[in-house]
């Protein structure tokens, strides 16, 4: 495959847009595919036992969830989503009807204001007029004040557009704001360092938003941290009759002001929402422990929801860190400045990663009687558990693979003669036998339990050797956490007759032309995809899984592969390149040469996401550089090093994998 002449022209331009475009052209040189939607993480190979069916407690989603379900993992949204969010929370917009669900409790309007500001140039005159009307301010005596120019740099204001004093009437709120700021400064261990000004407004009738924050910079929001901050309070809210609620909301908004001092203001507003909104919600609860903790309900009722797609409901994640002893507020500034979701998550959970991983998933059970690992001590009383349920019969299996920053939890009834447990990865999680003690995944990994009355003895003459360990209970809650590395758990059920059959055969010798060293299950480490310039190199690609058999047949699983992430600091564009799904091929390897034949990537999906243009399709994506093309290799013990040539940049791409 030769570099595209179009890419050759692009390579003279230093831009992440160019890098993503070149990647698109690179994979576009391959035959087009029409892949099906990739299977969920919890699907397993075709030759495995069929999965059990899990049932979930029915639950009505809130109107806010119906909106945020439409955004990508990195928070990318469309204009339609931004309009729906604004119309739901801030003010009516002609022709826009927000989804109808259970009423949400969004008290902070910073996010919908930022979202709509990204589409200023695409707004119609009627839409813009409605938005301006919703964000207008006036004094009690009816004298109109100048509207803050929210569309300057994505909701951050500069220069003459910035507010530089409190609005008339703010003196009622100033003492309380100053008290909350003093509490924040003590929690962060340093002063905010910039002035905060109060403006007053009227919120949407019947809406839940109580206030919103806007950073302000003296010259450039894109390159400068905030030099002041403005908080607008909606004075028509009855909730402010409860001083606890007022204090909680002001703490939340002041935390946004802090975020805009950590890094340039516009960059702060672009951060993933589990960081941008979930952390201020956590801080507001910590500083005001008697205030209501409404977002815990959404968090606790959605255990399967990925952390990186959460907004305000990420609050439960921060409290779980707090429960295991993580100094969350101390670590947050560094995490907030991280380059991507994975780096931020890793900084927050380490070095308490093991203790956190062993209790994160199990906390969603909300059952104090099972032990301290099985409930959320900081959650309000009365939360309902939404643990899935299923039954494990002979010839069936339960499989959990939450991936990075994910959770799986289920209550399983064991109805098979023999039950086997197999876990891989760091084994983060635990099992709570009903009416008995709980154990860690590492304690049950590799064990076979007998559930059959009278024991599990194989018939005379068979060579199978099932366990004589009686199963501790005929049911249990199993919980698996994905931290910086994926943990998988497979629980399989077998009949005694099936298990006692002697169908074991020795592994065949490696076929001619297949280096025996490469046979096995391999997982990729982080690697670098060269950009047109070194500053635009992409990093990521870890956790792709490749299984190579002795006959040279190989299968690839990219569902847990981390994206290749690049950032163009010149124009503030972050691009993530994803591969998802599976692939197959035949590998011939020897004398350092890696040759691929019979490649099938029809089940391989790929796409690019950047924080400006959103999502676009690719063919193959970065997964093509993980053993899926001709190249060179070295193999020694548990390490496999592979290199190929990038046809766009003509640079060598090297990937290291470790054997599981």
What ranges have pLDDT less than 50 throughout 5 or more consecutive residues? 1-40, 137-150, 502-506
Largest sheet: 8 strands, antiparallel, barrel
| Secondary structure tally, helices | 18
Computed structural class: alpha+beta
How far apart are the first and last residues' alpha carbons, in Å?
A: 32 Å
Q: Compute the CA-based radius of gyration.
A: 27 Å
**Net shape:** globular
Describe it for me?
The strands form five sheets. This protein has an eight-stranded antiparallel barrel with strand order 14-17-18-20-21-24-25-26. It has 18 helices and 26 strands. It has 660 residues and is an alpha+beta fold. 48% of the residues are buried. A hairpin with an 8-residue loop joins strand 15 (527-529) and strand 16 (538-540). Among the domains are: 5-49 and 508-659, no CATH class; 295-385 and 395-494, no CATH class. Helix 14 packs antiparallel against helix 15 (341-349).
